[in-house]
Write a structure and sequence with these properties.
alpha/beta, 4 strands
Amino acid sequence: MDLTGKYGGRGGYARHLLHLAAYRAGLLTPYERPQLSHVGRVVFVCRGNICRSPYAELVGRASGLNCTSVGLSALEGREAQRGAIEAAMRRGRDLSRHRARPLIPEQVDEGDLFLTMEPGQAKILNTLAHGRSVRVSLLGLWCSSPRPYIQDPYGRPASWFDTCFALLEEAVTHLAEAMRASRRDRRLASERLSSCSEAHKGGLAGATRQPAPRI
């Protein structure tokens, strides 16, 4: 098995198995796919905001999402890693103009949906977001085959960059589809409610206009 190409190496494979077991045991339930109806902005999160989360942001913007990306330990203004730029180019996307952004708790908005690459990052976000109306989820759980842990490709071979970015693209595409469906369902529900309200008003008006019965 090509552990580097599929999981980013032996360590990545071991962490994948560990977190997959935790997911199947229900230990990651708080970070599964959340309710999307009231999400205002999607925030992709990784460690340095120079590989995984900026690529997810690129795909998200191309898919019509209102999104951004940040890093828990990002150095503001740092360029995307060369391996990430090259991997993005192989997939027809341009990361060369990206500059890293750190997570600033004061800039967290009500209705934000944070999507992290690793369960440990999700736990940190949960602590920072305590008491706010935000959601935290694992991006890899939006893949067809759940990947609760997506190994950081920084400094790793191009084969893992390619696999990593393919996983991110699949997950973000599924997320965008789900958000469009959620918005559509919400709009239809609103239209039905409005239609019922108008019909009810019309019925009341008709009842008011009825002539008094003759005695």
